[in-house]
Amino acid sequence: MSKKKISFKPTRDWILLPDPRKDETESGIYLPESVQAKIKDNILKVLAVGPEAKWVKEGDTVMIDPSGKGHIIALDEVPHVMVPEFMVLGVM
């Protein structure tokens, strides 16, 4: 994921998160799609929040509902996930 500041601002209570899907291990081993679907991190750093988000702010580390489905979007050709604030289970 890019380290540059994201200029995208979600609307309402939507939250922008990095894409938790992993296609490669930390040691550089590429994972097949069948394994990728099973390895997801649900603790993520918030990149941006909409103006109606009440409990979460940019920079927070949050735990999201692992069974929920977010919307995958591409910003500067980098995948990100958008979720509504109710999918956040807690702030770390």
Report on the structure:
This protein is globular. It has one helix and seven strands; from the N terminus they run βαββββββ. The protein has one domain: GroES chaperonin (10 Kd Chaperonin, Protein Cpn10, Chain O), CATH 2.30.33. By secondary structure, it is mainly β. Helices cover 4% and strands 33% of the residues. It has one helix spanning 33-36, and strands at 14-18, 43-45, 48-49, 61-64, 71-75, 78-84, 88-91. The strands form two sheets. The chain has a four-stranded antiparallel beta sheet with strand order 3-1-6-5, with no helix packed on it. It has a three-stranded antiparallel beta sheet with strand order 2-4-7, with no helix packed on it. The model has no long low-confidence stretch (mean pLDDT 86).
Total DSSP E strands: 7
Cα shape:
globular
Regions with little confidence, pLDDT below 50 for 5+ residues: none
Structural class call reads mainly beta
Distance between the termini: 21 Å
- The sequence of SSEs as H and E is EHEEEEEE
β-strand percent reads: 25-35%
Percent of residues in helices: under 10%
Q: What is the CATH topology descriptor?
A: 10 Kd Chaperonin, Protein Cpn10, Chain O
How many domains? 1
Multimeric state of these chains?
single chain
Mean pLDDT: 86
- Name the strands of the widest sheet in spatial order: 3-1-6-5
Look at the structure and name the CATH superfamily.
GroES chaperonin
Number of helices: 1
Broad CATH class: Mainly Beta
Radius of gyration: 13 Å
Biggest sheet layout = 4 strands, antiparallel
Using the 3D structure, state the CATH architecture.
Roll
